Amino acid sequence: MAAHAAEPDAVVPPMPERTPNALRRAIAENAPQLLPDFDAHWKRAIGDAYDLAPVPAFMARWWSEYAIARDPQLDAHVIELQHRAAESTDITEAKALLDEVAKIRYSMRNVEPGE
To answer: CA–CA separation, 35 vs 27, rounded Å?
Structure first.
């Protein structure tokens, strides 16, 4: 999936290595608004667990979050879809909008490091 940029000349940062440390560094540098939630989730789900079993699910969630947030145009599109769904009085329309958000988030799992 090709990245979208807010402006034709804008550069979307590449995805980092698929490790928690690399992802955290990329978030801190390119999407710092996500960092407090990332750190809180890490501490709650992983930090004191002494169990690495939740790490793949944690990485899947935050990989997609960062893949969207690093691209201002895509991030704005997802936010707009969510707002439209929240304001919709038609349940079918709201469901379709949220399905579109889910498809975007799901597709982000395939973005590879360096893309």
So the answer is: 6
